[in-house]
Amino acid sequence: MSRFSITAASGPMAAVEISANRVAGVSLEERGGRAVIAAHVVEPLPEEAVVPALNAANVRDRAAVAGAVARVLEQIGRPRRIGLVVGDPVVKVSLVKLQQVPTRLQDLEQVIRWQVRKSAPFAIEEAQIGYETGLRTDEGQEFIVTMARRDVIDEYEALCAGAGAHAGIVDLSTFNVVNTVLAGGNVPTGDWLLVNVAPGWESIAIMRGRNLIFFRSRGADGEGTLADLVHQTAMYYEDRLSGAGFRRVMLSGASGAGDAEGLRRGLADRLATTVETVDATLAATLTDRVSAGGELLDTLAPLVGLLLRHREAA
Q1: Distance (Å, rounded) from C-alpha 195 to C-alpha 216?
Q2: Separation between Cα atoms, residue 284 and residue 287, nearest integer Å
Q3: What is the distance between the alpha carbons of residues 23 and 233, in angstroms, rounded to a whole number?
Q4: Other CB atoms closer than 10 Å to residue 257's CB: what's the count?
Q5: Which DSSP string corresponds to 126-138?
Q6: What's residue 6's pLDDT?
Q7: Residues ≥6 apart with Cβ < 8 Å to 314
Q8: How far is it, in rounded angstroms, from Cα 229 to Cα 224?
Q9: CA 239, 241, 244, 247 torsion: positive or negative?
Q10: Nearest-10 crossing angle of helices 62-75, 150-162
């Protein structure tokens, strides 16, 4: 799970997230073999300046977003190379299982493209596709495949380029919240569930140790409450994924959801277990004197995860 990306390059030490309501940035340093958060900043965006979507233009107010990106980059040290986090609705995620895996990389890529072509909501020729090896079972090898429209990713990359930064890695929010948990240590050997929420969308990931076995994302205007969706997911997990129960349930992004504590309680009641907040400071030390409350932890989670996506927890 630690190497997911829509586009890939060697790891930067700074990352930016462009979401519906803000642009956020983080830079890391290495001190004594430990990742340290050197700077973090948030710039708010006007309503609907960015509308994360799979099959439509995302940036509605380019001037406002470009200005926020420039200010964020200025405050985290003017990095020339960054990682870029985008909202989950920008990307279609598929779990593809192959009974026979081609030995040649080129052949494998062709097979994966053929498999996702069937469900692509746009021409496959317009797609930017990434994949990562997932769980292997007696039934075959699973691959987690990401697919986005190339012109949509270009929108986001161009905002960074316009401010003097090259986005060598582009990835989605929830994958990198998972990466933060993995980098922070104490990863359950069994199954665990992550709920990640943001203005306009909600996502659920089920992990079996370090392997993703289920992913679902929907718009916040979907039918039923998030607690209902999580309950339905838990039933599917038990019936179809040989689920033996979640060792941990984690929540990220709730600070922007209005009633964060009510959301937590609703999930805890539906799943009959404790719901934890994802804490990025377990993976990267926060050196300033700012209290790491819910809003800051939610801001840090996807950004730290992207920057530490290659790191194995001690």
Answers
A1: 10
A2: 9
A3: 31
A4: 18
A5: GEEEEEEEEEEET
A6: 45
A7: 185
A8: 7
A9: negative
A10: 50
Amino acid at residue number 18: I
Contacts of 10 (CB under 8 A, 6+ apart): 168
CA nearest to 119, candidates 89, 94, 151? 94
Instruction: For 242-289, write each residue's pLDDT tens digit.
Output: 899 999 999 999 987 667 888 889 899 999 999 999 999 999 999 865
Report the 10 Å Cβ neighbour count for 72: 27
In sequence order, what are the beta bridge partners of 242?
A: none
Per the model's pLDDT, the better-predicted residue between 79 and 227 turns out to be: 79
The pLDDT value given to residue 174: 97
Q: For residue 290, what pLDDT is reported?
A: 60
Q: Find all residues with CB under 8 Å of 242, minimum gap 6, and list them.
A: none
> Which of the two residues, 67 and 222, has the higher pLDDT score?
67
Identity at 132, one-letter amino acid code: E
Neighbours of 233 (CB within 10 A): 19
- The Cα 85–Cα 301 span in angstroms is 11
Q: What is the β-pairing status of strands 81-86 and 14-18? A: parallel
Distance CA 196, CA 233 (A): 14
pLDDT of residue 246: 95
pLDDT tens string 161-214: 999 999 999 999 999 999 999 999 878 789 999 999 999 999 999 999 999 999
Amino acid (one-letter) located at 225: T
pTM for the structure as a whole: 0.93
Q: How many CB atoms neighbour CB 3 within 10 A?
A: 13
Nearest CA among 263, 257, 153, 258 for reference residue 249: 263
Which residues contact residue 216 at a Cβ distance below 8 angstroms, ignoring those fewer than 6 apart? Answer: 203, 204, 229, 233
